[in-house]
Amino acid sequence: MKVHRTLRFTIFVLMKREYRKRMILLMAVSLLARIIVAAITELGNDEVYYWTYALFPDWSHFDHPPMLGWIIQLFTFNLRWDSSFALRLPSLVLGTLNTWLIYRLGYLVKGPKTGWYGALLYTGSLYAAIMAGTFILPDTPLSTFYLAALCSFFKAFGLGSYGQEKEAPVHFLWAGLFTGLAMLSKYTGIFLWVGAILYMILYRRKTLREPRLWAGMAVSLLLFLPVLIWNLSQDMSSFAFHSERISFFGEGLKPLYFIREISGSFLYNNPVNVFLVIWSVIFYIRQRRKIGTAMLPVEPDSFRMIMTQSLPLIALFLLFSLFRETLPHWSAPAYFSLMLLAAAVVDHTDLRWPAVLSPAVLAVMVLLSIVQIRTGFIPLRELTESGEVSPEDPFRELGRHDFTLDMYGWKQLGDHFKQLKANQEALYMESGGSQGMPLGSAVLATRWFPGAHLDYYVARPAGTVVKTTGPLHKTHKYEQITRKRGGITPGEQMYYIESSRFPENLSGTVPLDTFFVHRSGRPVIRYVVHRITGITDFRAE
To answer: What is the b/e burial string over 99-125, where b = at least 16 CB atoms within 10 angstroms of the residue's CB?
Structure first.
């Protein structure tokens, strides 16, 4: 018996070392690939907007808690290094850490082999590897703290390794810490506690009497308190904005939104991963009916925890999508725990090919996306359908339906505007103010997007700023930013840059110049730079 135990221990140690080596290689290759993506693509509309979180830090923001801004400040040395790659650096670092955390979760649930398969599935997720692991979004820190909190909850309940782990209630304090940090990253972090409490109510009621559980909840609340105080001082603007986005009422039943939520979940989480998750749940349920609790892919309590940590978030946004427009990545963190189940089933059945196929499918998706952004080889509509564009202005909506242009052409526009601004200021000085534009004239925008792009890529390199006018639900944080930049004074001369992708009828404008963004030798966006004199002459029709 002693010899047998020694042999098992030796095999376990060797397996652990082997999979650690594999993990180092996987993280290195994944990091290199994500670095390339980060280096050759321009910032997306959300990413460049979140740059303002670091530019104007606060205890919270109109649409999200403050963590992302703090993370950007930390990695960019308070924006002393503010290139697009530097802004994405936190995602590259934390994304690599996340791969290790999912491995540790799988290791905890069943062993190093399960951890390895979990890491492969995680690497194959568009949401995990690209959205949270390459682009700079609130999902970046959310994913890190979400995974760390899951590890802590599993340890606190003593889950994994077929019941060989012992309960360690002290980890509720760590779970509270990481959940609080997740909530400071994105409001959906609260679902970590929702899942844990649901698990306890259904299967572990005695744990509700554990003092360290409530202490962990208190830690989360304490960390989240600045967000609550900020909202109280701002008429609950952030909570009101999000409650409106997920309201059940006002628009009636919307089946197309529901279909988009489901199809988006397949795309964001990788179709291979989603099908594997569904099959794994079915496989587990069938196996338990056949053989009971013996020789299951994961122990029953671990399965229950996985379900309570995933289904509430998924079900809630599926329900919302029946009535309101939702975004599929809102529920994406719920798939982290489901990946553990899928990895355990792959380990159990030795069905390796889906775990290997997952990152391969993602690689193809990302490669095609980059080529499309850079070349536009897929013939997306660059002009609206016949009848929507007047013959007098055939370029009015050029590129409007090509969403890949969100991440293309901003540097071209910025270079052109910088030269135009210099020429206008020189003309202003030469004419004694009768022509041209005053030095340092701001750029006017009516929405946060493309206002943030104009701020980062156009105004900032030219030595000026963006100011916005319009309702709060369109300007978001820029309403506050504009106030901090001195507001807009009556009679103030400003630039207004009209884009064919976001056509808008304005009054009181004087055209100064027209510029086309080119891709693969073809014009894909038209910009018209106007002079506009103050908001008193401004009207959006």
So the answer is: bbbbbbbbbbbbbbbbbbbbbbbbbbb
Q: Is the peptide bond before 66 cis (omega within 30 degrees of 0)?
A: no
The answer, yes or no, to whether residue 6 has pLDDT greater than 60, is no
Domain residue limits at 462: 403-537
The answer to whether residues 326 and 257 touch, using CB atoms and an 8 Å cutoff, is yes
Give the span between the Cα atoms of 383 and 391, in whole angstroms: 12
H helices present in 329-409, as ranges: 334-349, 353-375
Token couple for 253: 């039943």
CA 26 to chain CA mean position, Å: 22
Q: What are phi and psi of 528, to 5 degrees?
A: -120, 120
Residue 131 DSSP symbol: I
Can you read off the two tokens belonging to residue 40? 């050759």
pLDDT digits (tens, 9 = 90+) for 261-283: 999 999 999 999 999 999 999 99
Strands 443-445 and 466-468: parallel
Number of domains in the chain: 2
The first and second tokens of residue 109, run together, are 């649930």
Contact present, 185 and 141 (Cβ < 8 Å): yes
Query: 471, 454, 377: which is closest to 417 by C-alpha?
Result: 454
Q: Is residue 52 part of a domain?
A: yes
pLDDT digits (tens, 9 = 90+) for 68-118: 999 999 999 999 999 999 999 999 999 999 999 999 999 999 999 999 999
At residue 433, φ and ψ (nearest 5 deg) are 95, 0
Domain final position from 372, 394, 422: 372
